[in-house]
Amino acid sequence: MSESVHSNQVPKRSEWILVNYHVALGCIGAVTCFAWLFSMLGSTIFIPYALMPGPITGLVHVSLIIGCLFSLYVCWFLSDYFSRHRLVLVSISAAVTLLSFAGLMGSASLEPWWVMIFSFGLGSGCMFLYVLYGEFICVFFQSDMRQYVIGIFAASLLLCFGILLAGPQTNFLLPMIFAVLSLVIYLVLYRLEELKSLPFIDRKTSDSRSCVVWRSYLATIAAGLAAGFGLGCILLTQRVSPWINFIVVPILILFTLVLFADSLRNNRIKEATAMRYFLPIAAVVAFPMIFVPADVRFIFATLLLCGSLLPITCSLSAISRHIGICKLSPIRAFAFGRTMPFLGLLIGGVISFVGFHEEFAHWFDGLASVFSIALFLLLVIFAASFVMTEDNYPDESRFIVAARSNDEADGSTATLVAPPGIPIHKIMSDISTEATAEQGSDRKAIFYLKCDAIAERYGLSERQKEVLVMLAKGRNADYITEKLVISTHTAKAHI
């Protein structure tokens, strides 16, 4: 069960944003990149001159998400190469993006299939750059990861809101500006920062260090599923009415500001917490959609879309923090981690497309939407039955960093002492098995061997070890206070 994760020579650039202009520049680039992505996912402003019907709009967005998934897979599969040749990835992103924008400029005269192909290319180009900024966040914002991630989300949504206020005349131009600006900023960062000299971590080493359990990825897929289902319902049933965006985007901004305030204070809204509450609420919100009239379903879809932002944002900060703690390959681990919400987006979008497409509704006598909502509920309930556990992403509390004299840069090793998703009484199952072989059927000896092993693993003092033994026997704080002749405050502190 013991696992060590070695440190690498990683430059520390998490100083206050106003002091370190490199950090400020990186934040601006990440914000523009995220805003570019959000504007494409939540609207059709990247398709100029097009007044497409709702079903075609749904297909275009499905193509966009497939393009995102394709790029994430390529980055994951070729992570070793791109980790050594980041400029190649930037060049691919720029070429695909500019070609797709140029193709969409003539979308008024294009067949829908061409619009879908260029949308696929635009999603691919955006996601190649998205992964690079994800690497930048994981490497340089380690000490204040959650604050930076949520702050970037909030600023990105504010920029998207600015696009809506700018009006239809400049809608297509602003995403192009975001794309070019984020590309240029990354090239500047590449010249200024130590991006080209970051330590190389191969895919095999990175995968062996990862401590994320599969429930984490299932939870993130479920959050993306809700976002895709809600977004698809809005796009297909409301024909992307601008006034709906003026409702949805401010609510999303409000959610991110709440998360940002929490990250600056008590940091209580974590990935597991958000998921525990979101999935049951998502099922409750989606259920009335079966019975309400079709023209008001978008209200519940809006609630689903806005609520899904909580676990999606939390999972982004969690996987980014995990990459820094375990010293994973940022490009590989970030690409795989972000594949999960986009996979959920695709599944949710397809379900909503089938359920709310006018032709499908005609074929199934209006029952297609009922079937799609029921399927969504079943998938959410299935996911909820697996993720209502302890924190699935290991954070700092599950590691001990001990200084050691070796050839490493900072002489420290991060050792995982409590694997994610496993309660404390199970973390020493391998040691207890070994103790069983040595002591036969002597259960009392096995019990104390397990306690000794846990105490040694956590570096407990003798008094803390005594408290551990009593807790393992089922004793309460009052008993421990009386037995050890210590104050109640001391007993609770040890516990």
Task: Spell out the blueprint of helices and strands.
Layout: E1 3-6, H1 21-42, H2 54-77, H3 79-84, H4 86-104, H5 112-140, H6 145-166, H7 173-192, H8 203-209, H9 214-238, H10 242-264, H11 271-286, H12 297-326, H13 330-356, H14 358-363, H15 368-387, E2 399-403, E3 412-416, H16 429-439, H17 443-458, H18 462-472, H19 477-484, H20 488-494
Antiparallel strand pairs: 1-3, 2-3
Helix pairs in contact: 1-5, 1-6, 1-7, 2-5, 2-9, 2-13, 4-5, 4-7, 5-7, 5-12, 5-13, 6-10, 6-12, 9-11, 9-12, 9-13, 9-15, 10-12, 11-12, 11-15, 12-13, 13-15, 16-17, 17-18, 19-20
Descriptive notes:
The chain is mainly alpha-helical and 495 residues long. A three-stranded antiparallel beta sheet has the order 1-3-2, with no helix packed on it. Strand 2 and strand 3 form a beta hairpin. Helix 9 runs antiparallel to helix 15 and helix 13 runs antiparallel to helix 15.
